[in-house]
Specification:
With 339 residues, the protein is of the alpha/beta class. 27% of the residues lie in helices and 25% in strands. Strands 3, 4, 5, 6, 7, 14 and 15 form a 7-stranded mixed sheet that branches. Strands 10-9-8-11-12-13 form a 6-stranded parallel sheet, with helices on both faces. β8, α3 and β9 form a beta-alpha-beta unit.
Length: 339
């Protein structure tokens, strides 16, 4: 348990120094040392232990986008999901030493209002950093978006990312007969098949996505978990069976391009004749799934029915690199930074 008297007088935070023109580069960030803030009554001071980075952060670096999350401001610290230990909590029900999740990552200490800070059960997950998984999004897309059913052939785009690496596992747990993923490298494709139970993988850049998917799913697809959009979504729609359920969960093609929206052409008459359901789902409409996921994840990690693929960096000075490398597609699974 950390005592308030042990807190240093200063800490480090990562600020946005400039907006990207295209790719994420290290010079877009500035690491500064600032005084550790003091919590007012009803607030808590948290020593952040681990923060997550995600593709949406590239979008938030732009001045405007359709994402309903506050964008990063030049000269101000970035923000994002993090877990940490309460250091001081005047006038609240929290106590020093409590484990909490908050949204002010990218800094070693954070003052947050006590009401939205989520007290976490320290023993529910084998590693508290697993609270930063994107499993709730995977659960939402598989269960409520694509409504995966026993016997389905499922196509999951962006399968090697933090969301897709969990979505494939969940599809298998729910009885999918065949799970097909997409990714950008043969090495990741082999990891998906050898380690996560994928039956086949479409590799971006190795020929037509449509023809690769047609070969992997000769009888078509029944459920689609789309985290990318663009060509991959178009191929999935072309091969969707009658009554197929298509969940739009992410938009990596647009988020990583840095050049605005990426559109997908849809044949509405074909949709009508095949009775296809196309549904956009976002986690902020399904937050009730978070505790359900944490329970399922904890049990799965302990009994070996689920794994948590992730890359891990150490030190806040590595956070810009972590985001840059994530957007470059260098890592498999989630990307975390221990502070």
């Amino acid at each position: 348990m950390t005592q308030r008297s042990e807190v240093p007088t200063t800490h480090r935070e990562v600020r946005l120094a400039a907006r990207p023109r295209d790719a994420v580069t290290d010079d877009l960030f500035e690491i500064v040392e600032v005084p550790v803030p003091e919590p007012a009554p009803g607030q808590i001071l948290v020593r952040t232990t681990t923060m997550g980075v995600a593709a949406v952060m590239r979008t938030l670096m732009d001045e405007q986008s359709a994402v309903p999350i506050p964008h990063y401001e030049i000269g101000a610290p970035l923000h994002g999901a993090a877990v940490g230990e309460v250091v001081a909590a005047p006038g609240t029900d929290l106590r020093p030493g409590d484990l909490v999740e908050h949204s002010l990552g990218w800094r070693e200490f954070a003052v947050v209002d006590a009401s939205p800070a989520q007290r976490l059960e320290p023993d529910l997950l084998p590693d508290p950093a697993a609270y930063l998984s994107q499993g709730p999004t995977a659960l939402m897309g598989i269960g409520r978006g694509a409504d995966v059913r026993p016997g389905d052939t499922v196509f999951i785009t962006g399968a090697a990312g933090g969301v897709g690496s969990l979505a494939g596992q969940l599809a298998k747990k729910r009885g999918a007969a065949r799970v097909i993923g997409s990714t950008g490298s043969r090495a990741k494709a082999e990891q998906l098949m050898a380690g996560l139970g994928y039956d086949a993988v479409v590799i971006r850049g190795e020929g037509s996505v449509l023809e690769q998917l047609r070969k992997a799913a000769p009888d078509g697809v029944d459920a689609v978990f789309d985290n990318v959009g663009g060509e991959q979504l178009q191929a999935a729609l072309a091969l969707a069976n009658r009554g197929a359920r298509v969940a739009i969960v992410g938009a990596l093609a647009a988020q990583m391009s840095g050049s605005g929206p990426v559109t997908t052409e849809i044949d509405t008459l074909s949709f009508l004749s095949r009775g296809i359901t196309l549904r956009g789902v976002a986690l902020y409409d399904h937050l009730d799934l978070v505790p359900e996921w944490n329970r399922e994840f904890g049990q799965g990690l302990r009994d070996g029915t689920l794994t948590f693929p992730h890359a891990r960096f150490s030190g806040i000075e590595q956070a810009p690199r972590a985001l840059r490398e994530l957007t470059e597609g260098r890592h498999f699974g989630a990307v975390l930074v221990d502070l």
